Amino acid sequence: MDTGFSFAQPDDYTQLLTELHSEYCRDQPEDVLQYCANFFNHRLQEQRTMLRQQRNPQNFEDNELHPLAGHNQMFGDQLSDSDKDDDFESIEASDEERDEFTGELLSMAPPPTYSRDRRTSVSAESMAPTQGRDFVKTVIPKSPEQCARIRESVGNNFLFRSLDEEQYQDVVDAMAEKQLPIHERVIEQGAVGDYFYVVEHGTLDCYITKNDAEPVKVTSYEAGGSFGELALMYNAPRAATIIATSDVVLWALDRVTFRTILMENTSRKRRMYETFLEEVHLLKSLEPYERHKIADALESVHFEDGQKVVTQGDIGDHFFIIESGKAGVFKTDGEGTAHQVNQLSRGSYFGELALLNDSPRVASVIAQEYLKCATLGKKAFTRLLGPVHEILKRNSENYYAVINQQERQIE
């Protein structure tokens, strides 16, 4: 049973997300984005109505903002075109109205009271990276079949979509087995949650209780299902009660382990990327804080042995840095024969001139074993730091060296 606790109380932001999650689990909408938009729009209108009523209680009836009619309309899966138009019209106020209302909010807002009526948060967990020290990973033995089921269960979960292959494997390795009997309450609505669960075997039912009414069953879980992911993000009260309807075997991941894995790997990779970026001639003019931004924006990609990373003659828009593995550089001569002209390994980079222009690739790069790279596109680079040409001009010597390299490759 989930018995984790924390001394930190949930804030308004966490409570809002918890309420959204509870409503979502109950209604199971098909159009998730529209559902969330309706939820927040409804809450925004309620807040505006309350604030206007507090400020002008006598004139409130004349100035009242009308909330959307009916709970079912507010949170239904399907909305008519006129309903959606009404939603957006309520959001898209004129600049003048928004400025006026912002002024009202500022004038009505109470002074900050960051610790009013509550203790300072106390937590036993440390989220600070270990500053280069080796992070001891938790590895709990599992069969390949069990690992595959866990991977499949968390593969489409929003919380895990941004993890790279190494982080993903660390999460799977760290999951601990929990065996619970039938009728056991795995989590209790309102309790503080510290675990995310994947169902290995058995069945469970999910119930939500509102306003002291009878619990309502909203969904069921069986092998391959997962629940409790919000506990990995927030110290939020559980939004539902989960009860085993048979003997169950669960894989559990605690919040501290997940966040430690995520932060440690992210910190370590950032340091590695920044070291690699210092060797890229095209980017030597970057300031340290700019290199830090690029390191955070790099994405991991993988290639199997023999797979092409870039193809000679194609227009490139990404550059690559090798994290692990090897790749061969091949040039095709006039007779169509490919010749290997170089081999790249960890720390090597290629395709960087794609950030500078739209010239065709001058060679093909092919993975010669399992290859892991960090990559960034021209559009993303420009969005973060602006055109590469302007950065290059900060260092005239390096600028001309890169331009000469570009001209030689074109020739």
TrEMBL record:
Record-level Gene Ontology MF annotations: cAMP binding; cAMP-dependent protein kinase inhibitor activity; kinase activity; protein kinase A catalytic subunit binding
Cyclic nucleotide-binding domain sequence ranges: 159-279, 282-402
GO BP annotation list: cellular response to stress
Binding site for 3',5'-cyclic AMP 1: E229, R238
Acidic residues: compositionally biased ranges: 83-99
Family: Belongs to the cAMP-dependent kinase regulatory chain family.
PANTHER family per the UniProt record, alphabetical: CAMP-DEPENDENT PROTEIN KINASE REGULATORY CHAIN (PTHR11635), CAMP-DEPENDENT PROTEIN KINASE TYPE I REGULATORY SUBUNIT-RELATED (PTHR11635:SF152)
GO CC terms: cAMP-dependent protein kinase complex; cytosol; nucleus
UniProt key word Metal-binding: no
Keyword presence, Transferase: yes
Protein name per UniProt: cAMP-dependent protein kinase regulatory subunit
Entry keyword set: cAMP, cAMP-binding, Kinase, Nucleotide-binding, Phosphoprotein, Repeat, Transferase
Binding, 3',5'-cyclic AMP 2: E352, R361
Subunit details: Tetramer, composed of 2 regulatory (R) and 2 catalytic (C) subunits. In the presence of cAMP it dissociates into 2 active monomeric C subunits and an R dimer.
Location of the region described as Disordered in the Swiss-Prot/TrEMBL record: 61-128
